[in-house]
Design a protein that fits this description.
Shape of chain B: globular
Number of helices of chain A: 4
Helix content of chain B: 25-40%
Number of strands of chain A: 0
Shape of chain A: globular
Order of helices and strands of chain B: EHEEHHHEHHEHEHHEHEHEHEHHEEEE
Strand order of the largest sheet of chain B: 5-4-6-7-1-8-14-13-9-10
Radius of gyration of chain A: 11 Å
Largest interface: A-B, 10 and 9 residues
Organism (chain B): Sphingomonas cremea
Pathway (chain B): Lipid metabolism; fatty acid biosynthesis
Strand content of chain B: 15-25%
Order of helices and strands of chain A: HHHH
InterPro entries (chain B): 3-oxoacyl-ACP_synth-2 (IPR017568), Beta-ketoacyl_synthase (IPR000794), Ketoacyl_synth_AS (IPR018201), Ketoacyl_synth_C (IPR014031), Ketoacyl_synth_N (IPR014030), PKS_Beta-ketoAc_synthase_dom (IPR020841), Thiolase-like (IPR016039)
Structural class of chain B: alpha/beta
Oligomer: heterodimer
Largest sheet of chain A: none
Radius of gyration of chain B: 20 Å
Helix content of chain A: 55-70%
Enzyme class (chain B): transferase
Keywords (chain B): Acyltransferase, Fatty acid biosynthesis, Fatty acid metabolism, Lipid biosynthesis, Lipid metabolism, Transferase
Number of strands of chain B: 14
Number of helices of chain B: 14
Amino acid sequence: MSETADRVKKIVVEHLGVEAEKVTEEASFIDDLGADSLDIVELVMAFEEEFGVEIPDDAAEKIATVKDAIDYIDQNKG
Amino acid sequence: MRRVVVTGLGLVTPLGGDVETTWSNILAAKSGAGKITRFDASDQKCHIACEVKPADHEYGFDPGKRVDHKVQRQVDPFIIYGIDAAGQAIEDAGLLEMDEATRFRAGCSIGSGIGGLPGIESESLVLHEKGPSRVSPHFVHGRLINLISGQVSIKYGLMGPNHAVVTACSTGAHSIGDAARMIKDDDADVMLAGGAEATICPIGIAGFAQARALSTAFNDQPEKASRPYDKDRDGFVMGEGAGVVVLEEYEHAKARGAKIYAEVVGYGLSGDAYHVTAPHPEGSGAFRSMEMALKKAGMTPGDIDYINAHGTSTPLGDELELGAVRRLFGNETANLSMSSTKSAIGHLLGGAGAVETIFCILAIRDQIVPPTLNLDNPSEGTTGVDLVPHKAKKRPVRAALNNSFGFGGTNASLIVKAVD
């Protein structure tokens, strides 16, 4: 597992209060992890803070699964 | 006429995370006051408060018991206290499993005086230091006063009236009074009603201290600072927490064999129309509020055995309230007991009226009245009134009255009595 993946999963566990083993790369924030649209806004903010990336609203809207987040961060971090 | 009874209680206070712990500490004359631990208060005029204690404390509060992890992260502490107290009350009433028809007729009236001040303070700093795109998406609904009622209704599926009173330090009493009327008016059969507050944060302490409302002379003896009716009182000590009751229509409660603590028989409301922070110099609003509550209850002064006073330990307020009691109760003043539990848990602001109404109910249940701590040298104006100094007192309690008065000159009085 990549370092990005580890850090993303840690943030998801902390923010959503879900068990770590549920946070697989395939997991959907809304369908599998009980997030609502505002939770995703908050998660995106936390990713931006953690990784020093900017995730614009149109990109954030496409982040549905844990893997989507990891991929976006890996492709865009400086 | 539809009667309203109390069938469940819930408390989060500086002396306990539940009803029985709080009550036994109150009766044991313990104080919940101490140095402020939430933040460094050394540059403030006031260094003390009655904080709700952490979970590992002997009488601490565990937010994880009834509030989801995610919700805890998103909302201010007053909402967490309120959800937990409401959960305790609904569990105590045996109403966790209500069918849909019952839940359509069950509502919430849980308010707060100020709301999410610590979160408003901290997010303002985020806005200032990091800009608008770093402000939490949960900022608004994590701070709003009606979000205890909102959260509780979602958690327990309560689809009846959803209401939240904001009347400063009268909030808790108005919340219960308004909810009782909703049941009387047939808007609901069950109401979770009460108030919560949590404003022990730098701007909260500074604001009340600048308004000259807080005690500042006892920073080195926190447990001595809240001393209602005592000559040396110099302001209130800020408390925090929540009190919530389950109100239920009497026949509804009887039909399901519920345990009935007391009946809400009287509710009075008035306005001082005088000053934003100072009480009316003749206690006129307090007098009329109590008078209306008695009238609504169909009672005379001799029917009241205990008054849980507003008695915040401010130089002006305590004696004005006492004067109003003397005028209304006349010769019967000598037969009642009147104490201020703010001497033990501080002033819970929007939570006070609800927490103290619960103490009135427990006084009736256990036939004992809680003490006024630190009443070492009573003010001259207090002679001839039993203010229950230092120690709880066993005595008959048929009915009890709670007074709550707030900034803006808003007054509420509630009367509860044993059910025949």
